[in-house]
């Protein structure tokens, strides 16, 4: 559902609210579906749309400008494509060269907005949170915009429904004079233990910290200058020295990397005197664990949430998901079972937060499954590894109509391409070859080559690599329409 800001209640139509979507997390607690190469915001976990699509659509329509998206370089093409799929064709996608947490990302968005209007109102959201009662957001946002225009920094505090230990909390202070429904913030509280969470719930004075903020660019930058001037200095230079790249804006790498690595909570929210909280019942969840997805999902008569080709017997209160093979579960309760093509997770729901520790252990052990999927998305389509062996590897490559790979060569491997669907145009040294279904072409080691799809349907081929080294870094790009190194 699209949320519309009421102009008469908040601001003139000529000054729309600028949505800012932060997409820097890896969502490791939702492994093996969410990995740093393709994190949870790009997956359809709570609806048929992906989480970033749902987030972006909340702020489309009257009263809103085109969004500013802050994401990393690796995800830029996936982000642009997913936004395009839901009709968002002109976002400003700001690329972080390195991760520096939420405060520098927000500073970059504020500086970018301030170039046009220092008093622009920004609505900052994480790309990977769920809101199941969007009809309640509009009135709260109208109030937040009015408070922000008065020089305050606003956050939305979610009315707690249980003694949750996985969220931070906000304690309400005195009501904000002149703005019914808004409160001064007394303090922020880190994720509590069960006993403290219960006490805060019982008091009625505490709200869940949603991580959403509303403010003017001027106010936020003034407060950052006051408390973390090094952030503003570094990020201002990164914004000034940015360069345009196709549909993206690249922050200067050296300048941005020199910024302190700190969250907006620590940098500003917990220190400023301008902090305001507006309580809300948005049906909000940060979708921070598989147990949260069990809570959000539609359940059968035994409390089970099942997704994909799943069969459950004598099972209760469990979450079972498969993205491929038939998964059968019997004789268990309160279990989380998640099946990918290259990894399987099984854990008790009470230990859902421990998944992050599993990922850390896998990274320490050098397991690529910790960070990358067997299917890897590229601006031209995707490839997925089918078989890996000693000195050979088999992949399926899908190239979208009109797209093409870089002009490249390899020092350590030869390749054999077999077209199984569509038509390929292959450059091999000085030759240009048209390869049709059930035809193949051989690319010897060192050959300069390129693959293109000149047709109107996706091109699918099987690639057989052979050689002593088959890593993705054995690609020497000579020419690339996507400006990759």
TrEMBL record:
From the UniProt record, list the reaction(s) this protein catalyses. alpha-D-mannose 1-phosphate + GTP + H(+) = GDP-alpha-D-mannose + diphosphate
* MannoseP isomerase/GMP-like beta-helix domain span: 312-362
EC class of this enzyme?
Answer: transferase
Q: Where is the Mannose-6-phosphate isomerase type II C-terminal domain?
A: 366-480
Can you give the residue ranges of the Nucleotidyl transferase domain? 19-299
MF annotations from Gene Ontology: GTP binding; mannose-1-phosphate guanylyltransferase (GTP) activity
Recorded hits in InterPro entries, A to Z, give: GMPP_N, Man1P_GuaTrfase/Man6P_Isoase, Man6P_isomerase-2_C, ManC/GMP-like_b-helix, Mannose-6P_isomerase_type2, NTP_transferase_dom, Nucleotide-diphossugar_trans, RmlC-like_jellyroll
Task: List the SUPFAM superfamilies hit by this protein, alphabetically.
Answer: Nucleotide-diphospho-sugar transferases, RmlC-like cupins
UniProt keyword annotations, A-Z? GTP-binding, Nucleotide-binding, Nucleotidyltransferase, Transferase
Entries under Pfam families matching the protein: ManC_GMP_beta-helix (PF22640), MannoseP_isomer (PF01050), NTP_transferase (PF00483)
Entry superkingdom: Bacteria
Biological process according to GO: GDP-mannose biosynthetic process; polysaccharide biosynthetic process
EC number(s): the record gives 2.7.7.13
UniProt xrefs under PANTHER family? MANNOSE-1-PHOSPHATE GUANYLYLTRANSFERASE
Q: Which family does it belong to?
A: Belongs to the mannose-6-phosphate isomerase type 2 family.
What protein name applies here? mannose-1-phosphate guanylyltransferase
The UniProt gene name for this protein comes to algA2
């Amino acid at each position: 559902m699209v949320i519309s800001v009421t102009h008469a209640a908040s601001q003139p139509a000529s000054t729309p609210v600028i949505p800012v979507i932060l997409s820097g997390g890896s969502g490791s607690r939702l492994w093996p579906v969410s990995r740093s190469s393709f994190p949870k915001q790009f997956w359809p976990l709570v609806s048929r749309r992906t989480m970033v699509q749902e987030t972006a659509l909340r702020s489309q329509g009257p009263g809103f400008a085109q969004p500013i998206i802050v994401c990393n370089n690796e995800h830029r093409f996936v982000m642009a494509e997913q936004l395009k799929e839901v009709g968002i064709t002109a976002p400003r996608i700001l690329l972080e060269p390195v991760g520096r947490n939420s405060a520098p990302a927000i500073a970059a968005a504020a500086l970018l907005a301030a170039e046009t209007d220092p008093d622009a109102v920004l609505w900052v959201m994480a790309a990977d949170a769920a809101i199941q009662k969007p009809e309640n957001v509009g009135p709260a946002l109208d109030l937040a915009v009015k408070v922000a225009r008065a020089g305050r920094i606003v956050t939305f505090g979610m009315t707690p429904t249980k003694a949750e230990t996985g969220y931070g909390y906000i304690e309400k202070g005195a009501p904000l004079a002149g703005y019914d429904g808004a409160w001064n913030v007394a303090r922020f509280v880190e994720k509590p233990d069960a006993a403290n969470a219960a006490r805060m719930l019982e008091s009625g004075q505490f709200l869940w910290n949603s991580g959403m903020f509303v403010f003017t660019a001027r106010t936020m930058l003034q407060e950052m200058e006051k408390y973390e001037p090094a952030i503003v200095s570094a990020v201002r230079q990164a914004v000034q020295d940015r360069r345009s790249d196709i549909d993206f804006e690249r922050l200067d790498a050296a300048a941005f990397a020199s910024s302190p690595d700190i969250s907006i909570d620590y940098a500003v929210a917990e220190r400023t005197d301008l902090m305001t909280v507006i309580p809300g019942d948005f049906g909000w969840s940060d979708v921070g664990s598989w147990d949260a997805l069990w809570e959000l999902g539609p359940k059968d008569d035994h409390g089970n949430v099942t997704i994909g080709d799943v069969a459950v017997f004598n099972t209760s209160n469990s979450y079972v998901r498969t993205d491929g093979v038939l998964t059968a579960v019997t004789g268990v309760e309160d279990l989380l079972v998640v099946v990918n093509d290259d990894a399987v997770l099984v854990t008790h729901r009470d230990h859902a937060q421990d998944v992050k520790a599993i990922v850390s252990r896998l990274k320490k052990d050098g397991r690529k499954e910790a960070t990358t999927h067997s299917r890897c998305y590229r601006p031209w389509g995707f490839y997925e590894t089918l078989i890996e062996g000693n000195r050979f590897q088999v992949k399926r490559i899908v190239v979208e109509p009109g797209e093409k790979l870089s002009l490249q060569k390899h020092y350590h491997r030869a390749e054999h391409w077999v077209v199984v669907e569509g038509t390929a145009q292959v450059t091999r040294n000085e030759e240009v070859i048209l390869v049709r279904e059930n035809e193949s072409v051989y690319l010897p080691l060192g050959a300069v080559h390129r693959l293109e799809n000149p047709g109107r349907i996706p091109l699918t081929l099987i690639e057989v690599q052979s050689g002593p080294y088959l890593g993705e870094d054995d690609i020497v790009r000579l020419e690339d329409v996507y400006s990759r190194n």
